[in-house]
Amino acid sequence: MTATSTTYAPAPVTTGRPTLPRLMRSEWIKLRTLRSTVWCFALVFLLLAGFSALFTPFVVDQFRDQLSLPGVPATDLLLNVGLAGVTLSMLVAGVLGVLVISGEYSTGMIRSSFSAAPRRLGVIAAKAIVYTVVTFLVTAIAVATALLIARGYFAAAGAEIDVLSGEFLLAALGGVLFVVLIGLMGFGFGLLLRNGAAGIGALVGLVLVVPIVGSLLGGVLDWVADLEPYFPLSAGNRLYSTGTGAPGELEFWQALLVMLAWVAVILVPALVLARKRDA
Known about the structure:
The chain has eleven helices and no strands. The protein is mainly α. It has one domain.
C-alpha cells in the first residue's frame, strides 16, 4: 500500500498597499513623536492665550468708561486684543511647516517614505493633510481660548458683544485660517528648498520683509502701494478683522483667495520638483 503525499501550495504573501489613509496614519505617528512638534504647538497655544490674558486687562482699563457706551466698536477692539498673538503664532506654525518636510530630507528618512510610495505625491499629500488638520485643531482651540479670555474682561467692563454673531465668528475663523495657511506656505518652502534654514528664511522674507520693503517703496511708487493689500501679511491680517471699509480694502473672501493663491504659488512648483528630483 503506497502512502499518498499531499503538497500544499504556499499562501500568497499579501502586502499592504500604500493607500492615503495608511500613509496618513504613518505621518501622524511621525508628527506626534517629534519633540519639536509638541513644543511648537504648545507655543502656538501659549502665544494666543497668553497675549490675550496679558494685554486685555490693560486695554479694558484704558477704555473702561467707553466700552459700555453705544456706538463704541467694542467688537473690533476685542478681536484686536484677543487675537494679538496671531502674528507670532503664524510664524511658529510656518517654521514647523518647514521643519516637518525639510527634516526628513536632512535625515534621509524621505527616501524610505518614497520607496514605500514611489509616486511620492501620496506621501507629500498625507504629510500635508495631517499637518494641516492638527494645526487647524490646535489653533482653533487656542483662538477660542484667547477670545473667551478677552470676552470675560470686556463683559466685566459692561461691554455687550455678541460672540455668536456672524461677523465675530468669521473673524475668529479667519485667525485660525491665517495661521494654517502660513503653515502651509512654510511646508511648501520646506519641500521646495529641502533645507530648514533656507525654508525659514524664505518664509520670513516673504511674510515680514516684503511688506516692509513695500511700505518704503509705496511712498514713491503708486503701483507698489496698490499691491500692498495682496501681500500675505496684509491679506492675512484682513482675515481676522471686521474690516474698516477703507478704499481698496479686500473683503474676507477676497483675502482668503489671495492667501490660497500664495500657497498655490509656493506648493505647485515644489510638488513638480519633488516628483523629478532625486530624494
